[in-house]
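Workshop exercise sheet. Pairs work together: one partner reads the sequence aloud, the other fills in the structure field after running the prediction. Swap roles for the next sheet.
Pair: D.N. / O.F.
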Amino acid sequence: RSKARLDTCNDDMQWLMNTVLQEVADISILKGHRNKEEQNKAVDEGHSKLRWPEGNHNSFPSKAVDFQPYPVPQRREKLWAALAYIAGRAIEIGKRRGLVVRWGGDWDQDGDLTDQNFDDLYHLEIRD
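Structure field:
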């Protein structure tokens, strides 16, 4: 399932997440591309702030992915730590290819994780 979801993403995101899988940790891909119904449902459920077609999941192929470590840590603090670790490594790996990768735990990319008003710790996107 992860491979099929990742296949809906652009080549750079596929390269990035496959490299994360090889170099960092075992991960599951939860979502790549979101269609209109899925995107607007994500907003309605509080998982996204952007309605269709404004989200980076909405392009096809997608410039965004939602991921989680595998296996999923059962304690919240361990899960959050794993998501932050994987995201940080993904950002650094992306730089090797000249990619600007943004994580949903640091939307403004300033390194301050306390100044967010919406956290999406499962989310990574490639910026234009």
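Discussion prompt: Helices lie at 2-6, 11-23, 36-44, 76-96. What would you look at next?
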